[in-house]
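Collaborator request, handled under Task 6.
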Amino acid sequence: MEQGQAGKEKTRIWTRDFTLATLAGLFSAMVFYITLTTLAMYAGRSFGTGAGLSGLVASIFILGGVAGRIFSGRYLDRVGRRRLVLIGGVLFFLISLTYLLPVGLGALLAIRLLHGVTFGIVHTALATIVVGFIPPKRRGEGIGFFSLNFVIATALGPFIGLSVIRHFSYTMLFALCAGSALLSLLFAVFIHIEKPVFTEEQLARLHARFSLRDIFETKALPLAFVIILLSLCYTGVTAFLDSYTTGLGMASVAPIFFVVYAAFILLIRPLAGKLLDRKGDNIVMLPTLLCFVCSLLLLSAAKTWPMFLFAAVLMALGYGNILNIGQAIAIKSVDVHRIGTATSTYFVFSDAGMGIGPLLMGAVCSRAGFPPMYRAEACIAAAALVLYCVLHGRFAGKVR
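Structure tokens returned to the collaborator:
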């Protein structure tokens, strides 16, 4: 009986520690999305900044996140997983409190940058730690469940942030963010994180002199090259869909688009993870990439509500699955002492795509308009599909 219970525990995903890590990730992601959608408006109202500088106040957080991910990937197992996630969580909370101080524009930019660094540390550490709580044969499914914290934050964060500044004040907004950061830290405190066991050879590599391998895991690069192109394309949706639908006289479509997108991800992502674990990489990635291409093509031609909402469903089937499935594939073949670096590599490229996407797609849109921009993104996503087949797909075998 005890053996049966132990065996069940080894195959269960929703353990106490997995749940705590997921909740810690959710409340840190809430801070990210609440501030990402409100800080540009805050800068404009408080300092009279133009669109470019206001956008920088919001997006410089992502640049800090890239630096934080690189730091985490290099030092996660040198500093210690528990120690780093708690240090990052404490700093993330303390910097959240500084938004309540009366500061100038320069100080606000510095706060946003440092806040992004600490978020990158916390998220990368949690995304690495949680892998150890997932049974290897259910890794794709488990990562899919964990990454739902970002999906929920994507839907709730902007809604809560905009509602608070509409009905209350920015002071209330920043207090809410600090409270969310504190909850993330408290959940992280109670996670039981076992120290990984390394061989002497792995320890030697872990403490070797600095090299590019400390920043980038070469085995994760094929999926990282794919995700940077796809993230770049997705920013054309997050950054410009509202303007696109408003120009068509359908301003209320964009919020519903993202609600439908998030709802279908909640339904689909765990199933996609199970399919990855049982059938292998290509059976999930190829249809997923194709759905993303089709969703962008449909957006370029959309003129009615049903077309936009069907595009949201296709995007959930596509990009909604890509981020977590790609992470599961990227870390599958690396040694335990390289999981942190592989995770960091993957998300650094994803964040880079999100950072440069609005600039590149904005330039295309300003010259050609929204439909040509989405067609250009569909071509880039199709190129990512080909790149996946060349760099990984043709080598991918069935997961065992």
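The cover message to the collaborator said: "Residues 213-394 form a domain with the Growth Hormone; Chain: A; fold (CATH 1.20.1250.20). Residues 1-6 have pLDDT under 50 and may be disordered. Please let us know whether this matches your experimental observations."
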